[in-house]
Design a protein that fits this description.
The protein is mainly α. Helix content is about 65%, strand content about 5%.
Length: about 110
Amino acid sequence: HEGQEALAKRLSFEEIVAIVERVKGERWAEFRDRYGDWGRDLVLWAGWRYAGLSLKVLGEKVGGVDYATVASSLRRLEAKARRDRSLRVARKRVLAQCTMQRYVPK
């Protein structure tokens, strides 16, 4: 539309990973497969929400897990965020950075 100042775009999986790496202060390779770490689940959540990737594609991108496992990870992240303040803060920071990167000047 005329007068629109910014155009929304979908982020790539790689952009999502980079955002979560910055928020966590760790490289993807360090936390991706670490048991109990919420970093991978946060990448899945942001990838689903801001990259528009399907659960199946997300599973392939994080090492070949099936869509049901991805869905479980998203549910687990929501439940853990209700109990864990540091995760809520991290999720909010990821959300803010994804939102900023989605809008590019015309």
